[in-house]
Amino acid sequence: MSLLNEYIQKEQQLKQLQEDLQRLEGDQRLKSELEFKAKLEALMTEFGKRPGDVIALLDPASEQRSVKTTASGNARRKRRLKIYKNPKTGEVIETRGGNHKGLRSWKDEHGDEAVESWLVRMED
């Protein structure tokens, strides 16, 4: 896509977003919610409370639900996704561990350091 086409497309998107924003600003429900939020924040400040305190006060079961999820054995953090690309063949391997069959064969053939240099990116 040419730079001019991209500019025109972004300009149209911006115009559409501005129209949506103006429509929302005129919506009475939004005004009501913003007023509620402002009053709630002022009240929390007045009494020195945080959002978590208010949630615990209004929904005591929410704290128990959050404790259950971490205590159920899912406390281990998920490994990061590593994406390798072989510069010679263009083949891509995505893995969360070092025991991937294809990655292992690359490391046996080319060496650990060479294959680690093929790391394209890491994602959570």
Characterise this structure:
The chain is mostly helical and 124 residues long. The protein has 6 helices and 3 strands, in the order ααααββααβ. It has helices at 3-25, 28-47, 51-58, 61-71, 101-110, 112-116, and strands spanning 81-85, 92-95, 119-123. Strands 2-1-3 form a 3-stranded antiparallel β-sheet, with no helix packed on it. The chain is flat, with a radius of gyration of 26 Å. The relative contact order is 0.07. The model has no long low-confidence stretch (mean pLDDT 87). InterPro entries: MvaT_DBD (IPR035616). Pfam families: MvaT_DBD. Residues 82-118 form the MvaT DNA-binding domain.
Short précis:
Helices cover 62% and strands 11% of the residues.
What's the structural blueprint in terms of helices and strands?
Layout: H1 3-25, H2 28-47, H3 51-58, H4 61-71, E1 81-85, E2 92-95, H5 101-110, H6 112-116, E3 119-123
Antiparallel strand pairs: 1-2, 1-3
Domain MvaT DNA-binding: 82-118
Keywords: Coiled coil
InterPro entries: MvaT_DBD (IPR035616)
